[in-house]
Amino acid sequence: MSTLEIKDLHVAVADEESQQSREILTGVNFTMTTGEVHAIMGPNGTGKSTLSQTIMGHPAYHVTGGDIRLDGTSILDLPVDERARRGLFLAMQYPAEIQGVTNAEFLRAAINARRAEDDQISVMAFLKELDRNLALLDMDEAMTERYLNEGFSGGEKKRNEILQLLMIKPRFALLDEIDSGLDIDALKVVSKGVNSLRGANFGALIITHYQRLLNYIVPDVVHVMMGGKIVKTGNADLAQTLEREGYAGLRDELGLDVPLVDED
Ligand code: ADP
Ligand code: MG
């Protein structure tokens, strides 16, 4: 069993206009283990993506306090690629396009980068696994010969993030708004992919603004984030309550003084 611990995490970013440092995460605490699916819900702009980027090690996010520990060891000083080798994976809200690298090439490189040099995946094993996962996700094989994310529709990008997830099989997956822009059929496919990995050696942190995805990937634990910290933790019912009462309802119930802007 592996453990991912977020301890009193404070994170600041450089404000784009003023270049002043601005604190986004104001003391996030939670612990998850493999075998569990946690969801983080919260209004726009509260720091959900900041949390996932910080766990993965994106250099724009400065940890000003607290710690992130994988199996008891701090990973704060490790670069992104080393965190990936240790079993973390981030499916991004806005996946990048990479010109000149096909999806299949990228996938094989991503798998091999996580394996020892004398234990690289064979072409045959790779293609077999690729075929299996393409079928599971109802994806066209032609997708794998296209340049990574280039000209992919929003839905194709999301499916492709899940294809990466299935091929890489990380210990902990951070899934940031994988439901945004998906129609109901794509949502089901994406959920099926994530659910197929559930088990003792896999943990997922599902970040979402909406409850809808959590009907398909039912979480063990739900955290609500507001104002840069977790303000409430519960089981899957908490997501249903939020759907009914909205973030404003919970904010008022908890007596929090946080602005809720640009709700959509
Ligand atoms: P959420 O994912 O909950 O909608 P984000 O983590 O994306 O929220 O953003 C939280 C706040 O941090 C926002 O005000 C956003 O503008 C700011 N922020 C996030 N990333 C950066 C960055 N790289 N540079 C500057 N500001 C950022
Ligand atoms: Mg976000």
Structure, explained:
The structure is a single chain. It is built from seven helices and ten strands. It has 264 residues and is α/β, with parallel strands linked by helices. The longest helix is centred in the last third of the chain and has 19 residues, at 236-254. It is globular. The chain binds adenosine-5'-diphosphate (ADP) and magnesium ion. Magnesium ion binds at residues 48-49, 93, 176-177.
Q: What number is the mean pLDDT? A: 93
What is the strand arrangement across the widest sheet? 6-7-8-3-9-10
Write out the CATH superfamily name of the domain at 3-99 and 170-254.
Answer: P-loop containing nucleotide triphosphate hydrolases
- Unreliable segments (pLDDT under 50, ≥5 consecutive)? none
How would a textbook summarize the main sheet? 6 strands, mixed
Total beta strands: 10
Number of helices: 7
- Report the span from N to C terminus: 38 Å
Structural class of the helices, strands and pairings?
Answer: alpha/beta
* Integer-rounded radius of gyration: 18 Å
Order of SSEs: EEEHEEHEHHHEHEEEH
- Strand portion: 25-35%
General shape: globular
Percentage of residues in helical conformation: 25-40%
- Distinct small-molecule ligands in the complex: adenosine-5'-diphosphate, magnesium ion
What is the highest CATH level, the class of the domain at 3-99 and 170-254?
A: Alpha Beta
Q: Tell me which CATH architecture of the domain at 3-99 and 170-254 applies here.
A: 3-Layer(aba) Sandwich
The CATH topology assignment of the domain at 3-99 and 170-254 is: Rossmann fold
